[in-house]
């Protein structure tokens, strides 16, 4: 049986995921976002692209069956199971600037961006190269008429999960998100599991 | 009086825009998209970011008064006039892969991505570093319930325009878009003007 790993609240990790392996991201308590990045292990200049992925999917809310593409239009991951059905792929990981610009009453935090930059640095990924993440469980309803949106608490309940199959050898960055609005105002852990 | 420059159908250019200068992008015939990229001249690793911009604007349809942010959360451009009010900031520039995956009945074309990569290469910008562009006049209505979207003809009429003020010294990439659906099925030029 595969091991379940815990990401502590407001932190992030990076790890390898081989082509064919499956990654399950679990929200153990409910209402917690996990930002996910994927970078090609054979060339770190190839990385997950929201713009390519949304263009090919023709929708902004992705779920089971949708493929996550790289900036070179190769499939990096496919969503193979999803008990929630609402994730975000529009917004960048929260950062020190997010806190400065959007949460000026909150103590500043390096956010998911800082956590991902720290975790990915040993793999040679630079801070400036962190793109829009696939934000598991993040709930950003968009008003199709005005284009306005708001960041709402996740729809995920305790034990909900999303599972991805890797289509190439990857470096994965994954967080337990640090932004108040994204997580219903409280910061909880994220679990993940890798299976062959 | 400032000079009006023409970008030929299905091509692209790159040029410098100084802090304080204004760039007007004009659709001279109507129904034509122009993909716009902005890169900091002092450090090309700083570039326009859809994810930062949308996050701070809290809407997907940007217009007069909205600011376009970099990946470092600095303001690069502000939209100071807009006679259309509908542009896209979700999708990457069309590319050879776009034609392969989305237009398999069309002759392949290097698309805006290829045109931008060619135009920006002399400035040291690599193909892999081309992010989601601000797609002037591109009309991508999103269904807020399902998240589905479609690429519709632009709402711009002949002579419509959008004007930006530079907030830092920039390298600008700009195209007359090459994708059939984005431009109502025909390929037209784009005009632009720079004013101090």
Automatic annotation (TrEMBL), chains A, B:
Residue ranges of every copy of the DUF1989 domain listed in the record: 6-171
InterPro entries in UniProt: DUF1989
Protein name: Urea carboxylase-associated family protein
């Amino acid at each position: 049986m595969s091991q379940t790993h815990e990401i502590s609240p407001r932190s992030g990790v990076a790890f390898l995921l081989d082509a064919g392996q499956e990654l399950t991201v679990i929200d153990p308590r409910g209402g917690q976002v996990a930002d996910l990045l994927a970078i090609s292990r054979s060339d770190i200049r190839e990385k997950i692209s929201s713009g390519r992925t949304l263009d090919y999917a023709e929708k902004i809310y992705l779920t089971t069956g949708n493929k996550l593409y790289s900036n070179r239009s190769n499939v990096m991951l496919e969503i193979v199971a999803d008990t929630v059905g609402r994730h975000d792929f529009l917004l960048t990981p929260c950062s020190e600037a997010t806190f400065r610009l959007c949460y000026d009453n909150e103590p500043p935090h390096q956010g998911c961006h800082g956590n991902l930059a720290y975790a990915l640095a040993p793999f040679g990924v630079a801070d400036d190269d962190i793109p829009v993440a696939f934000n598991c469980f993040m709930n950003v309803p968009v008003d199709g008429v005005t284009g306005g949106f708001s960041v709402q608490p996740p729809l995920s309940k305790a034990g909900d999960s999303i599972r991805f199959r890797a289509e190439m050898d990857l470096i994965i960055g994954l967080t337990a998100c640090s932004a108040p609005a994204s997580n219903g105002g409280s910061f909880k852990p994220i679990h993940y599991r890798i299976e062959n």
